[in-house]
């Protein structure tokens, strides 16, 4: 059994990345799987980007984060939610950023520099002292967005009619990449002093039992399947 230094996971980014990648079994086969479909997935990037921002604009609690001036944007920022539209220059700027991010995921290389890049992507969404803007997105929105991005990518992959083996390997690889990204976000939100193993097995055990009961899992499973089919159907139209 390999020993992992729990404290070091929160102090050393490289050590944490090494552990997460090892735990998820992300390696050469996953990289090959992404490279095998990258050229076919790349034309779908604009569709994914548009879908993401249409989703973000459906809720005031997520749309409001695009009103403050974005770091690096040199134009005029909107002054209200009502003024902010999907064709606003600042949103076009943000869409370009998301497009570059998705293309980076498709192209790699998946090395230490790549890990620093996705860590930076996470960091700029939090209110850290070393960035100019004060945009600070609550983790609930980050987590929901990552889930939506993954569902949309899954829909895109399913629409390509790849052979089953290629499709399965690509789905697994992209799933790992996005969960690695999600961990980069989590490291800036999770406070180690409030996280203890005992919390999982203590007073919350009743809640966990209810959450994992068949009665709770059935509607969740139906919702996931329905959502995936809906995304797949939308991509079939393009």
Automatic annotation (TrEMBL):
The keyword Cell membrane does not apply. SUPFAM superfamilies: Globin-like. Keywords: Membrane, Transmembrane, Transmembrane helix. GO terms for molecular function: heme binding; oxygen binding. It comes from the Eukaryota. Residues 19-191 form the Globin-sensor domain. The chain crosses the membrane at residues 217-235. The keyword ATP-binding does not apply. Pfam families: Protoglobin. This is Globin-sensor domain-containing protein. It comes from Rhizopus delemar.
